[in-house]
Amino acid sequence: MSDLKRLGKEQASEPLPQEPPQVSASWVLIMSSLFIGLVAFGALQLTNGQSKAGALPPQAVFVDPRSFAVVGQNGTFRESSFASFFNPTNTSPPFFQVFDRSFLDILGSSASIHEIASNPSFAFAHESPIYDSRTDEVFFASNDGGPLGMSDIDNNNQLGKISLKEVEASLKKNTASINATVTNIPLPEEAQMTNGGTGLYRSSLLLINSGRGPLPPSLTLVNPRAPHNATVLVDNFFGRQFNSLNDVKVHPSGKIFFTDVTYGFLNHFRPPPLMPNHVYRFDPDTGAVRVVADGFDRCNGIAFTHDGKTAYISDTGAAGGFLGLNQTEPATIYGFDVDPKTHAFKNRRVFAYVDAGVPDGLQVDLKGNVYSGTGDGVQVWNSEGTLLGKFFLGTTSANMVFAGKGRLVILAETKVFLAKIAAVGQDLNFP
């Protein structure tokens, strides 16, 4: 058979092309409605926390970042990170604000948060949170020179404590109204304007003090038990007073690191500063002090990862005391590599910039998540700097501390909150 005849025969045996099936308009409408319904249901499930990570705890709200990625030309934008906070669901605080589903691993399925102490006329719970596991108590200092702090160049601030045993007993009876007893601890003369603290360190409270008037800033050990005697570890840098020491942490090596900043001067209880704002290392075995990091506007909080390889420093430059607020200055947490030999801070990088107020005190849990007190409560990032969620208080928190397994005590100036969560914090005790 010729090729031409073969081709003709093959073509004749092929089926003729058919017209595409006609789809009715009603069928299109039904399928479109079904698709839209499924999308809406999925969004609702995300909002209600029915995600891969499970249901949200009762006091939690999920806010999908995609839901506010575009505000629109006629939308309402925030103009101040200090005067207005991001709460698109208008949920009443305190609550957990979830931006990333992995925050649910930190919270756990039965997370709760409650106000446990309050004094609206006195900022009694500012910073220096220290947990004593031997007595199940948390120590803290009042605001030094700030609003409602009842302290100034003529008056020292106060140190107090609450019993978590008392708090737990009250929670079993009633979660609606708790106001734990705050016991005043008389600060020794050596501790003037206490602002930071950690420990226990060799069974003592390790307090960092801003100083008052001509009385020098200092790093001081204070006995948590009566008579609350004190030992000053360092109060100068080669004969010069520090500006106003702010926060402190102990590195796994046993060396003590602290920040020095000008807030004593900016809050009218210290003379004009004489040195840059630095991060220092103090060697308790030799007494030697050295600078390990500089270049900050106003360095503030400090924390280390559990292995000591990474340090975090918050810069609160946007809050300027009598100079006022300036949102173009830092409200930023920086990460550093810690040199294993010299402990110098290297490879500085932006870890996070906060959206509410400034980042103040810092803590890191055992999984490397970073917690910071901010203008709207406590914010939490993973080790990559992704904001996972917030302990949304609707008011400022300067610091917080893990108080045993699964408990986070949050200081909020005139209030104290207790969050019960799944995350476990580092043991800050140093023998």
Automatic annotation (TrEMBL):
One Pfam family named in its UniProt record: SGL
Comp. bias intervals (Basic and acidic residues): 1-12
Q: Which residues form the signal peptide?
A: none
The chain positions of domain SMP-30/Gluconolactonase/LRE-like region read 228-406
Region ranges (Disordered): 1-20
Under InterPro entries, the record lists: 6-blade_b-propeller_TolB-like (IPR011042), Oryzine_lactonohydrolase (IPR052988), SGL (IPR013658)
Q: In which domain of life is the source organism classified? A: Eukaryota
SUPFAM superfamilies listed in its UniProt record = Calcium-dependent phosphotriesterase
What is the name of this protein?
A: SMP-30/Gluconolactonase/LRE-like region domain-containing protein
Organism the protein comes from: Hohenbuehelia grisea
Q: What is the lineage of its organism?
A: Eukaryota, Fungi, Dikarya, Basidiomycota, Agaricomycotina
